[in-house]
Design brief:
With 228 residues, the protein is of the alpha+beta class. It is built from nine helices and seven strands, in the order βααβαααααββαβαββ. The longest helix is centred in the middle third of the chain and has 23 residues. The chain is elongated.
Length: 228
Amino acid sequence: MPTMSFTDLPLEARPREKLMALGPGSLADAELLALLLRTGLPGKNVLQLAQDLLDGFGGINGLLHAGLDDLRRIKGLGGSAKRSNLAAVLELARRAMAQGLKERELFESPDAVKHYVQLQLAARPHEVFAALFLDAHHRLIALEELFRGTLTQTSVYPREVVTRALHHRAAALILAHNHPSGCVEPSRADEALTHTLRAALALIDVRVLDHVIVAPGQALSMAERGLI
C-alpha cells in the first residue's frame, strides 16, 4: 500500500495551500506539524499521523519536550528525516527563547524562565543540574549543564559552580535541575544545596536569584515558594 501524502488529501484539507491562502495562524497544530512530517503512513494520511503524534505527547508542549529517542519509538518517525525536522524545530524554539532572555531582565517574565528550563532539561531520563549565568542587568549570559546524576541524586560541587560563575563574570545566577520522577516538589536536599551554593557564591559577590525545578509539563520556582 503506498504512503499517503498531501496530494492524497482534498484541496481544502491541504495545510500548505491553506497556509499560503490564509496565513500560518489559520492552521491547527496538527496541520502545522503535518507540514514538517510531509508524508504519512500506509493507510494513514499525514494529518492523521500528526494528530496521533500530538495525542501521544499531550499536545505541542509535550512534543517540544520529546527527545530523539522518544521520537524514534513512534511508528512513522523511524526515518531520520522526520526526526531531524522535529529536532530542528525544537532547537529553534530553544534558541529563540534564549535570545529573548538575553535581551531583557529575566524577572520581567519568570514564566518564560521556567519554560526555557523545561525545554532544556525536563525530558532528560537522568537528573541534570544546571545554572543560568546572568549579567548585572539579570540578562542571560549562558546556560550550562554542570553535573549529571542518577534518577534520584546528583553530586554538585560548589567550587565548580563558583569557578564557572567567575569564568562568565556573572553578577547573578539561577540554579536549575530536573526531577525525572515527575514530581517538582523540592526535597530537603534541594533546599540544603541551594543554601550551600548561595553562601559559596556570596563570597564572590554573585547572587542566587532562584532555583527552578522541572519535570515534563511542570516547573517550580523556589523563589516564588519563599525558599530563597
